[in-house]
Design brief:
heterotrimer; A mainly alpha (478); B mainly alpha (635); C mainly alpha (105); A: mainly alpha; two-stranded antiparallel sheet; globular; C: mainly alpha
């Protein structure tokens, strides 16, 4: 029941928000995200006690054999938790901002949340597809209505990319459905299909391209920097913090168990692409002047590592990738919060125009340093545990691949320190001298981020235990 | 007491938190008391632990705090290991560290309240990381401290963050360290694969169980190499040494902390800790020795021609670290640890002394503009002289015993290496006394204003100097060589640490007469070189002439920075720009946009068919019908 | 007369109709050409009906029923079509079909 509630809360409040005006929507958004967080917490406890009670099955489209089949496993609980925290952080951060037409803005945001939670909970392929689209469509509107000056072509690009992926995935799902003996979309039917290798081989690409575009991995990534740059920052936070996890989640939940042999066949190719992406994106991040694009490319590099870790497919890499999904989400949202603060104060995102902010806004600078270091996986921050396990898994798969991917650690240090130097260190200028330090809502949001970073960095065990069961399942089928 | 070992790192962490969070509310004296107090308290706990550890019959104790990472068969507990090696390092780190903290309360007094608190917070964090590094009971925990000290060095080198060149130096330090860290990390992964564990006790017993010439010797060699790459980065060995001299951008006590008590000794600690792995990979040991020796010589050469007081000391550190790796490479683990200890004393002394000089000179670091400081700063002068004597290896001072032990072991292992190492030692004596004579003797060459301000530093500065000077003299007596007819106390104390590797080590035995002879030769030559330096530099005049020839090359540090810039930094930048402007924009993006543009173009062409002429439509229809007929007929 | 004569006449009529539709711009003439094509078909149907009747097929008259249908539909079409043309003429003072491209753009 909690699972359904988790989808319903943002769905209902989202629809309600469309009708509200003034400060109504933001209060509703805050209440809704708090309620979601509470429900996730409840689900977390229930998952410990009796995980099977989180599964709900209801009739949906009996003619097609599609069911409303939702449930939560360890990874699902974790990602729902991430979603709830992410939206809470976003709503806290932007509490003092005023958006044009707030009803639609908050309504669309909450609908996105409903879609995301649906994706993470669906155990029916058609339902999964519906939620996948439900999560994406509001984002198109958010980008094209509240975005930067180049928003229309950029949204169009984003739309073309993701929609191509979605369609390929739909074709794949329908093909799988036609192969199923009992004409059903359910997860168990799909995982028991055992298709011949040749079919798995091309079906793999139908599904994988959709997930790869969403992650995104090289060379399907060029929508991402543009979209991150042009979207309103709250949307970017959701896109990079939670939405890219849809792709990774899709691979772990659907691709590997349904098409294990296809995945095994193409693992090397995918890993080479992913590792190329790490180096490629890190290099580009080094020479970026735009704050937002730099973070976008750093995200591509990190996602590349996660993708490689999935396909390395051993216990350590799978554990690592799962907790890294959560940790990367938290860290990158933290980075975007700082970007949002700087941008709302100074209206620039070119780093050459920034500098010396540490003198004027010391508290914000400290937060930025901590979050940036967590982002490059410094030990005792949350980023380290995941990366350590992922690299360890990669090392077991192939030493050379790991060594090349490991260069990403060094390049990450280079671009992160470049960013810190250009943004907060150095001499200030007339523009940055006007920077004011954090407001209370921003302080609250950033403190939450840093607390999560440090707690999970020092004591990651609960998180590792949570996703352990999913690892076992995936590891078994492979 | 051992169970309270967690207090040792937690105390500095507490200091970090108090100073960091309370930086707006605490006064400078409060900050100083908290900052130095926690380190002193940690030192007190360390002493008690040490007293317990040195009892005969003490066996290694592991204090597990909680499970850090636990995945499948891999368990990495957050655990501290107390044994002879870690207890000794605790003493060095907290002992020298607390002196540096006390010194800093005076040295950094000109900073703003907030800057002062920030400085002490970083310093405490630094000590915390280093303590974590030496206390960790497994390689992952060591790695945590390992990266932690890298981070703190970054923060402290770039402490004056408004200065962009300082920031660049900080960045360089961090990035170079990360290159090494990648090697270390891969070494850890190698252990995970091979031993299914990263805990010291398990790894070492399993390695020792394999024995020499096992089927796994290649794997062990790979792991040892990877770990050594980590050590290269942290302990500034060729090719990753260039960050250390640049690290002088930080406040001088930080340099003392980095160079003497913490950070750079981490690599030595790690190799000494992993002695079993290295002893079982003799080829890698040779590599370690060669790289150590090469670093020692290269840095000594550079130090001969440097004119910045801190740069000379920095290169001397690089050089001394080279000696320590040489010792590790020839299997003289005790000698390496011994040298770490004595080096911590005299290098901290020299750096703090140079800080005192720089402070008195109003920030001037160029020794050509100093001179004759002897009469203005007697305490600094005398303590600095003790430091120089110790590092040069004058009999009776601590450096003599440790360096002599290294040289003796090198002689037993390889004669050519011995000669080169001896040459390096002589250069050390020469450049240290060049520094001493130019700075403290002769006549003052600075401005009048500077001369007016010359004064001896306050007690908070001079007391640590005196304590360190005393330690620099007596520190060597814990390791009196056996030829003196006494037991080598340190060797005996550390023997449990190196016991697992002992069965595999080649036994070198040196005749006592030979040992006396070597000692005599090196002592006499060192004294000769000191007098050479004296005759050349005691009446040094700043001619202001541009250096030429070899001196110029040395002044520019063999142009290694320029080489790295041309070979790595520039090509990387070019590659990155190619990716950004070429592949990304003109390649992938154009491809994607090209698809979109192709559709638009195609539609525009198709649109021409819809020209609005009814006649044309009918014509098209008729043509279509005819085509259908033809197709129908053909099929 | 052999049925081939009718067939060739019918083809000729039909082609004249097609060419008229394609070449002429006057809507009324185009209309007449369409009628010509319909009647070419009618002629063909009647000819074949006669042919089968001579051969003794009982259901040969069925073709003539089609002819009646076509004539009725054609009449209805003429009524609507001429009305359209009249309306077009009132609006544009022309029955040139090349002027009827206002939907373009």
């Amino acid at each position: 029941m909690l699972t359904v509630l988790l989808i319903l809360i943002p769905l209902v409040t989202g629809l309600l928000a469309f009708g509200l005006k003034g400060s109504g929507p933001k209060v509703l958004g805050l209440i809704s995200s708090l309620a979601s967080l509470a429900v996730v917490a409840g689900a977390l406890f229930q998952f410990r006690a009796a995980p099977e009670t989180l599964h709900v099955t209801a009739s949906w489209i009996p003619q097609l054999g599609a069911q409303f089949n939702v449930g939560l496993d360890g990874m699902g609980v974790m990602l729902c938790l991430l979603t709830a925290i992410a939206f809470l952080l976003v709503f806290i951060t932007i509490y003092n901002r005023n958006y044009e037409n707030p009803g639609s803005f908050y309504g669309l945001m909450l609908l996105t949340q409903a879609g995301l939670v649906g994706v993470f909970t669906a155990y029916d392929a058609l339902l999964f597809y519906v939620f996948w689209e439900l999560a994406l469509i509001p984002v198109y509107f958010l980008c094209s209505m509240w975005g930067g000056e180049k928003r229309v072509p950029v949204t169009f690009k984003f739309f073309v990319y993701t929609f191509t992926g979605s369609l390929l995935m739909l074709v794949g799902i329908i093909y799988l459905y036609l192969q199923s003996p009992d004409r059903s979309f359910s997860y168990t039917t799909f995982t028991n299909l055992n298709l011949p290798v040749q079919e798995q081989s091309w079906l793999f690409w139908l599904l994988f391209v959709a997930f790869a575009i969403k992650m995104p991995i090289f060379p399907f990534h060029t929508w991402q920097p543009d979209t991150y740059e042009q979207s309103p920052t709250p949307v970017t936070m959701i896109l990079s913090g939670v939405m890219v996890k849809m792709g990774l989640f899709g691979v772990i939940r659907w691709l590997l168990p349904v098409l294990p042999q296809g995945a095994f066949m193409w693992a090397d190719v995918v890993m080479v692409l992913a590792v190329t992406g790490i180096i490629y994106a890190s290099c580009i991040a080094i020479v970026q002047q735009d704050f937002k694009r730099l973070i976008a490319y750093s995200s591509i590099a990190h996602i590349g590592l996660m993708c490689a870790a999935i396909f390395a497919n051993n216990e350590q890499s799978l554990q690592g990738i799962q907790i890294q999904m959560f940790n990367h989400g938290i860290n990158i949202i933290g980075l975007w919060i700082v970007v949002e603060i700087i941008q709302s104060r100074l209206q620039v995102k070119n780093m050459d125009q920034l500098g010396g902010i540490a003198q004027y806004a010391p508290r914000m600078s400290i937060f930025l340093v901590i979050i940036a270091l967590a982002n490059i996986a410094l030990p005792l921050t949350n980023g380290f545990v995941g990366e350590f396990l992922m690299f360890s898994g990669l090392f077991q798969y192939n030493i050379w691949l790991m060594a090349v991917a490991g260069l990403g650690i060094i390049l990450a240090a280079v671009y992160t320190l470049n960013m810190l130097q250009k943004v907060i260190f150095g001499e200030g200028n007339a523009l940055t001298a006007t920077t004011t330090d954090l407001q209370n809502s921003e302080l609250l949001a950033l403190s939450l981020v840093v607390i999560v970073i440090l707690v999970l960095g020092v004591y990651p065990k609960p998180m590792l235990d949570l996703v352990g069961s999913t690892t076992e399942i995936v590891n078994k089928v492979f | 007491m051992i169970n309270l070992v967690w207090l040792v790192p937690v105390l500095p962490l507490l200091g970090f938190l108090i100073n960091g969070l309370g930086r707006r509310y605490l006064s400078k004296s409060q900050v100083g008391i908290v900052g130095s107090g926690v380190i002193l308290a940690a030192f007190a706990v360390s002493v008690m632990i040490f007293l317990e550890v040195r009892q005969p019959g003490f066996s290694t104790q592991v204090v597990t705090l909680f499970d850090f990472i636990s995945v499948g068969s891999l368990h990495i507990p957050f655990a501290f290991q107390v044994d002879q090696l870690s207890a000794l390092f605790l003493l060095i780190i907290t002992g020298v560290g607390s002196l540096i903290h006390i010194y800093s309360t005076s040295y950094m007094h000109d900073e703003s309240n907030e800057g002062f608190a920030r400085y002490f917070a970083y310093l405490n964090l630094f000590v915390f990381s280093m303590l974590l590094l030496v206390l960790g009971a497994n390689y992952v925990l060591m790695f945590i401290g390992w990266e932690g000290v890298g981070l703190c060095s970054y923060l402290l080198i770039g402490f004056w963050f408004k200065n962009t060149s300082f920031n660049k130096a900080a960045k360089k330090a961090f990035v170079m360290n990360r290159i090494g860290d990648l090697g270390f990390l891969m070494g850890i992964f190698g252990m995970v694969v091979m031993f299914k564990s990263v805990t010291f006790s398990e790894v070492f017993s399993k390695t020792a169980g394999l024995g020499a010439h096992s089927n796994y010797s290649v794997q062990i060699a790979i792991i040892a190499t990877l770990l050594f790459i980590g050590a290269m980065g942290k302990s500034a060995q060729i090719p990753l040494y260039t960050w250390l001299p640049d690290a002088m951008a930080g406040p001088t006590p930080v340099s003392a902390l980095i160079h003497a008590a913490t950070m750079v000794t981490a690599g030595i600690y790690m190799v000494a800790r992993s002695n079993v792995l290295y002893t079982l990979a003799p080829q890698i040991q040779t590599v370690v020795a060669v790289i150590g020796l090469a670093t020692a010589l290269l840095a000594a050469f550079i130090a001969l021609a440097q004119n910045d007081i801190k740069k000379v000391l920095a290169y001397s550190t690089v050089s001394q670290l080279g000696y320590m790796f040489l010792a590790l490479g020839v299997g003289a683990y005790t000698a390496a640890v011994f040298h770490v200890m004595t080096h911590a004393f005299f290098k901290a002394l020299l750096f703090l002394g140079s800080g005192s000089v720089i402070h008195a000179m109003g920030g001037e670091q160029d020794i050509r503009k100093m001179g004759g400081l002897k009469k203005f700063m007697p305490v600094t002068n005398w303590t600095f002289l003790v430091g120089c004597l110790a590092i040069s290896g004058i009999p009776g001072f601590s450096g003599f015993f440790s360096k002599d032990e290294i040289l003796a072991h090198t002689f037993a292992d390889n004669k050519i290496m011995y000669i080169l190492a001896l040459a390096g030692a002589l250069m050390t004596a020469f450049y240290m006394f060049r520094l001493y004579y130019i700075t403290f003797c002769g006549s003052f060459r600075g401005t009048h204003e500077q001369e007016h301000h010359l004064h001896e530093s306050p007690a908070a500065v001079t007391i640590p100097l005196v304590i360190l000077a005393v330690l620099s003299i007596v520190g060597g007596y814990v390791g009196l060589p056996e030829v003196f007819g006494v037991k080598h106390w340190l060797a005996e104390y550390l023997s449990p640490i190196f016991a697992p590797s002992a069965p595999f080590a080649e036994a070198h035995h040196l005749e006592h007469s030979m040992e006396w002879l070597l000692m005599g030769i090196s002592s006499i030559l060192v004294i000769v070189f000191i007098f050479l330096a004296r005759s050349k530099y005691i009446r040094y005049e700043n001619t202001g002439r541009e250096a030429t020839g070899l001196t110029k090359v040395l002044e520019n540090k063999w142009y290694v920075d320029e080489l790295y810039d041309a070979v790595i930094v520039k090509p990387l930048g070019m590659l990155s720009r190619f990716f950004r402007d070429g592949l990304e924009k003109a390649g992938i993006d154009r491809l994607v946009n090209g698809v979109g543009r192709g559709v638009t173009w195609g539609s525009q062409q198709a649109r021409r068919l819809q020209n609005g002429q009814v006649g044309f439509y009918v014509f098209a229809m008729v043509i279509g019908i005819i085509v259908l007929f033809v197709i129908g007929l053909l099929l | 007369m052999p049925v081939q004569y009718y067939i060739f006449l019918s083809i000729a009529l039909f082609c004249i109709g097609v060419m008229g539709v394609l070449m002429r711009r006057n809507a009324i003439i185009i209309f007449m050409c369409i009628e010509l094509m319909l009647n070419a078909v009618n002629l063909l149907l009647v000819a074949f009906s006669k042919m089968w009747a001579d051969a003794g097929r009982a259901d040969a008259a069925a073709a003539q029923i089609f002819v009646f249908f076509i004539m009725v539909v054609a009449a209805a079409e003429v009524a609507v079509g001429l009305a359209v043309i009249v309306m077009v003429y009132r609006n544009t003072h022309s029955v040139d079909i090349n002027n009827l491209n206002r939907l373009k753009n």
